[in-house]
Design goal:
The protein is α+β, with helices and mostly antiparallel strands. It folds into 3 domains: 99 residues, Rossmann fold (3-Layer(aba) Sandwich), CATH 3.40.50.20; 70 residues, ATP-grasp fold, A domain (Dna Ligase, domain 1), CATH 3.30.1490.20; 187 residues, 2-Layer Sandwich (D-amino Acid Aminotransferase, Chain A, domain 1), CATH 3.30.470.20. It has 16 helices and 22 strands. The strands form 6 sheets. It has an 8-stranded antiparallel beta sheet with strand order 13-12-9-10-11-14-21-19, sandwiched between helices. It is globular, with a radius of gyration of 23 Å. Bound molecules: adenosine-5'-diphosphate (2 copies) and magnesium ion. The site of one adenosine-5'-diphosphate has 19 residues, from strand 12 and strand 13.
């Protein structure tokens, strides 16, 4: 039985995992860099150990982390998302040292982390993939030939990419020539691999992904889908479960397809199968993420299943605590990634001291975060500092509740993406539940709100000042 877990992460996801441990009676061990000494995960864990003065090196050192787990008597490691969560080395070292890795085995992480290998596995399993190159393209000439075969526009992608980086659209050969070296150097810098491949660029697709849970006993279940089409620069900002854009037939189809994909690769633990849905209703496999995802929360809200606890039980060798037939999603849930970025200034990062923090509450509101009043948000990590998760019975309920919750939230001393989300919530197309990954670029007016709003506010302020002056 797992009794003590080391959490190889920081921020809100570390706090999320600590909460799961606390509810299961499992001791939690945090690790932290010097820059994170005052972070919430350090305060909330049962034990906490500094793993180095450097901001990133400690969180990225699998040997050091597993040593720490062994020394402190842990029997498992939860990697969270980002950092080493999709690093097969960490999973491999864990096995060697007798520590359970809360995730799939190293071979699967390795295979699915390579997008071309994942595509091959899916083709073999009869899962439709986006048309694209057969494996990696190894030089510019090959890229040009493959692009001609696939047809422009194409997406040039880093084979081991993630987090929306290392992806460029090329509309013609000239653009492909221009971007080829750029993507290779981006990929090398960000992912330590120069491998790239290309896919047909699907115009204005919907990003639909399916949450999977699989145990060691051959049970694979899906927890329905999430719609992550609201993106900026291929990065998700708002996620919705279930998708308001699918019919029940499509929902059943995609759920079963994801289960087939997971079974085909012998998957274990929590994972996500990502698809693109075209205008004409085709689903294409895009990639598989072999870890807990940032937006796992909304699936928890509609299904009532605690995905992190389920991950821990699976790693402990237990069967899934539910059957597919027992999963009945209820209502809708929507997650907003609260980033410390200034939407009216081209999303310029805005780190620094949080002078004031007030969390919204009330019916249907869940906040996953590691911030608190007085916390100094360090510039070395993700700009996402909180997740606001709103649930309701209907799509309209969720929209209205989201407006209210975001309006209640206060983060003093930094700029956030909240005003941008309020604009999206006011958009009629969004309210009608009709949007694709082109939504944000198609609506430049969404970031003009600050000018509009300050005029309104000015007018109100002037009216108020005059009223006060004349003694009203
Ligand atoms: P999700 O797929 O859960 O929606 P994101 O794509 O937003 O998550 O990524 C979550 C975090 O993990 C981000 O900090 C991102 O930069 C990081 N990340 C994701 N994939 C990789 C990768 N292949 N290499 C390095 N970091 C990654
Ligand atoms: P990451 O590993 O960074 O998450 P993905 O392959 O999942 O990369 O792609 C991230 C996003 O980029 C998708 O959600 C989608 O919006 C866009 N994208 C990726 N591939 C394509 C494609 N072939 N056509 C159109 N959009 C794409
Ligand atoms: Mg992805």
């Amino acid at each position: 039985m797992i009794k003590k877990i080391l959490i190889a992460n920081r921020g809100e996801i570390a706090v999320r995992i600590i909460r799961a441990c606390a509810e299961m009676g499992i001791r939690s061990v945090a690790i932290y860099s010097e820059a994170d000494r005052f972070s919430l995960h350090v305060k909330k864990a049962d034990e906490a150990y500094c793993i180095g003065s450097e901001e990133l090196a400690g969180y990225l050192n699998p040997h050091r982390i597993v040593n720490q787990a062994v020394e402190t008597g842990c029997d498992a490691i939860h990697p969270g998302y980002g950092f080493l969560s999709e690093n097969p080395e960490l999973a491999r070292i864990c096995v060697q040292r007798g520590i359970r890795f809360i995730g799939p085995d190293a071979a699967i992480i390795h295979a699915m982390g390579d997008k071309t290998e994942a595509r091959r596995a899916m083709i073999a399993a009869g899962v439709p993939v986006t048309p694209g190159s057969d494996g990696n393209v190894t030089d510019l000439n090959m890229a040009l030939l493959e692009a001609d075969r696939v047809g422009y526009p194409i997406m040039l992608k880093a084979t081991s990419g993630g987090g929306g980086r290392g992806i460029r659209r090329c509309d013609n050969a000239a653009e492909l020539r221009q971007n080829y070296q750029r993507v290779i150097s981006e990929a090398t810098k960000a992912f330590g691999s120069a491998e790239v491949f290309l896919e047909k660029c699907i115009i204005n697709p919907r990003h639909i992904e399916v949450q999977i849970l699989a145990d060691r006993h051959g049970n694979v279940a899906h927890l329905f889908e999430r719609d992550c089409s609201i993106q900026r620069r291929n990065q998700k900002l708002i996620e919705i479960a279930p998708s308001p854009q699918l019919s029940n037939t499509q929902r059943t189809y995609i759920g079963e397809l994801a289960v087939r994909a997971a079974k085909a690769v012998g998957y274990e633990n929590a994972g996500t199968v990502e698809f693109l849905l075209t205008d004409t209703g085709e689903f294409y496999f895009m990639e598989m993420n072999t870890r807990v995802q940032v937006e796992h929360t909304i699936t928890e809200q509609i299904t009532g299943i605690d995905i992190v606890q389920e991950q821990i039980r699976i790693a402990d060798g237990e069967p899934l605590s539910f059957t597919q037939e027992e999963v009945h999603p209820q209502g809708f849930a929507m997650q907003f990634r609260i980033n410390v970025e200034d939407p009216k200034n081209d999303f310029l990062p805005s780190f620094g001291r949080l002078t004031r923090y007030y969390a919204p509450g009330g019916p249907g509101v869940r906040i996953d975060t590691a911030i608190y009043t007085g916390y100094e948000i360090p510039p070395y990590y993700d700009s996402m500092v909180a997740k606001v998760i709103v649930s309701g019975r209907t799509w309209t309920d969720v929209i209205n509740r989201s407006r209210r919750a975001l309006n209640d939230m206060v983060l003093g001393g930094v700029r956030t993406t909240i005003p941008f989300y309020q604009e999206i919530l006011n958009n009629p197309e969004f309210q009608a539940g009709e949007f694709n990954t082109g939504f944000i670029p198609a609506h430049p007016e969404l970031t003009n709100y600050s000018r509009k709003r300050s005029q309104e506010e000015n007018t109100l302020a002037i009216v108020a000042a005059i009223a006060a002056h004349v003694g009203l």
